[in-house]
Amino acid sequence: MLTVHAYAAPSATEPLAPTTIERRDVGPTEILIDIKFAGICHSDIHTARGEWGDAGWPIVVGHEIAGVVAEVGSDVSKHKVGDRVGVGCLVDSCRECDSCKQGLEQYCLNGNIGTYGGIGRDGKPTAGGYSTHIVVEEDFALRIPEGIELDEAAPLLCAGITLYSPLNHWDAGPGKKVAIIGLGGLGHMGVKIAHAMGAEVTVLSQSLKKQEDGLRLGADHYYATSDPATFEQLKGSFDLIVNTVSANLDLDAYMSLLRVDGTLVEVGAPEHPMSVKAFSLLPGRRSLAGSSIGGIPETQEMLDFCAEHGLGAEIEVISADKINEAWDRVVASDVRYRFVIDTATLG
């Protein structure tokens, strides 16, 4: 066993604090990763603060992990010591169901194992990337290509793949009009990726305060949804809308912006049930869909795509003693556009 430094949430109401956790010995098909950077995802906050249910405190969160291989098991063939690797939201799945066989481990029919808050095959709770090291199966570690800095790569393991997967699945590209709702940690990657895919990209944001950023990141158009004229002007405009916002929105209004056969894809996770009227779907044969991260093959494809197009997250690197402050700023939407922890400051 290896004792490593980490930051944990002791309960749903207490601030995160330094601690130590144990990482298991490296098995034959596993690797030990020296974590260099860990992105802060809003999911970390929802989980640790009990907003999605009992988290099993104390809990070490973090599923946007970038680092370097420090040790490999005897049967490992995909990675070697010194390789740059990443870990996203999953550290294992059944590998036997139809979804897993298709490389869709995020939809494992027998339940995948999350990077934190899950129970690993060793029977112990999984602990995430707010730590200095992690042990994972080699199949669930992604190769980070040269051309992406590790700190900018970390958020790609969640925010990047969460947007790449629906844009890829619904064929964003030349000739397609794509709208991204919200320009935050998820949305800013959606703009970058959709633009690189060749789509015509529009940002739909509550106000115009981030308009300059949106256009710089690759948006062709930027509209304020607080202006009722926006919905009149853009009616029937888009082939694909990706909603990154975790708050409950008026989905009927946004459905009206779709073209015939258009799709609105939900990647945000609002607290309350979503409501949409049948007559927002029936005219125009519109669809409302959901999408969750990506499987291992698609996540690697995303990383390679980002390296090819020079894409990384827009980040603010922080030391571990600023994590609680950063969480408060995330909740207040005061970050452009992803906090990343320098894990060298954990111990």
Q: Would you give an account of this structure?
A:
With about 350 residues, the chain is an alpha/beta fold. It has two domains: about 1-160 and about 295-345, Medium-chain alcohol dehydrogenases, catalytic domain (Quinone Oxidoreductase, Chain A, domain 1, Alpha-Beta Complex), CATH 3.90.180; about 160-290, 3-Layer(aba) Sandwich (Rossmann fold), CATH 3.40.50. It contains eleven helices and 17 strands. It has helices spanning about 40-50, 100, 150-155, 160-170, 185-195, 210-215, 230-235, 250-255, 280, 295-310, 325-330, and strands at about 1-10, 15-25, 30-40, 65-70, 85, 90, 115, 135, 140-145, 175-180, 200-205, 220-225, 240-245, 260-265, 285-290, 315-320, 340. Strands 3, 4, 5, 8, 9, 16 and 17 form a seven-stranded mixed β-sheet that branches. It has a six-stranded parallel β-sheet with strand order 12-11-10-13-14-15, covered by helices on one side. Helix 9 links the parallel strand 14 and strand 15. Helix 4 crosses helix 5 and helix 4 packs across helix 10 (about 295-310). The chain is globular, with a radius of gyration of 20 Å. It starts with a strand and ends in a 5-residue tail after the last strand. The model has no long low-confidence stretch (mean pLDDT about 95).
Anisotropy-based shape: globular
What is the CATH superfamily classification of the largest domain?
Answer: Medium-chain alcohol dehydrogenases, catalytic domain
CATH topology of the largest domain, what is it called? Quinone Oxidoreductase, Chain A, domain 1
Please identify the structural class as seen in this structure. alpha/beta
